[in-house]
Amino acid sequence: MSSTNTVIFDLGGVLIDWNPRHLYRKIFKSEDEIEWFLQNVCTSEWNEKQDAGRSFEEATHELLVKFPEHEMAIRAWYDRWEETIIGPLPETVAILKELFELKKYRIYALTNWSEQTFPWALNNFGFLHWFEGIVVSGIEKTRKPYPEFYQILLDRYAIDPAKAVFIDDVLRNILGGEAVGIKGIHFQSPALLREDLKKMNILY
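Predicted structure:
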C-alpha cells in the first residue's frame, strides 16, 4: 500500500506541450538562430520574471531597449504566445485521467505560468478542471523553485508534504519540492512516469 494521498503535477512540459521553439521555428531559418535568440534575448531567466508576475508590457519594453534589431521576434513572444503550445501531451493526460477516476488521491497542479496567459489555458484544456486546485506563479508573485511557492499549495489545501508526490520536468523544481518535504518524480517521459508511479504503488 502507498502512504501517498496527494499527487501534484507541473503543467508545461508534463501535461502541456509548451516550448518557445514551436513558435520560433516559424520565424528563424535555423536551429542555431533559435538557440542564440533563446540564450541571449528571450532567455529563460527573462521569462521567469513574467511567471513571477511581471507584465508582458514591461518585459517586452526591457528587451526592445536592449535589442531593437530583434523587435519582431521579441514582440512575437507574447503577440503569438499561443503558437508556443502545440497541445496536450496525451499520454500524460491519460495518466492524470486514471488518477482522477480512481478517486483515491487528491490531485493538484503547481505551475510557473503568467497570470496574463493562464486563463487561455483554462479555456483550452478541459483536463485542468480535474484538479482540486491549481497554484499559478504569476498570480502568487513567486515561483518554483522557491520554497514559499510550494508552501502556498501545502497551506492553502492542507496537504501533508510527507504524503504527497510532485511531478515536474525540471530537476531544480523537484529539488525545491524536496526542500519542503515533498517526494519528487523527475518527469522524462509518460512511460517512465507510469513506471515510477507503479513502483510507488500509486498506479497498478
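Summary: The radius of gyration is 18 Å.
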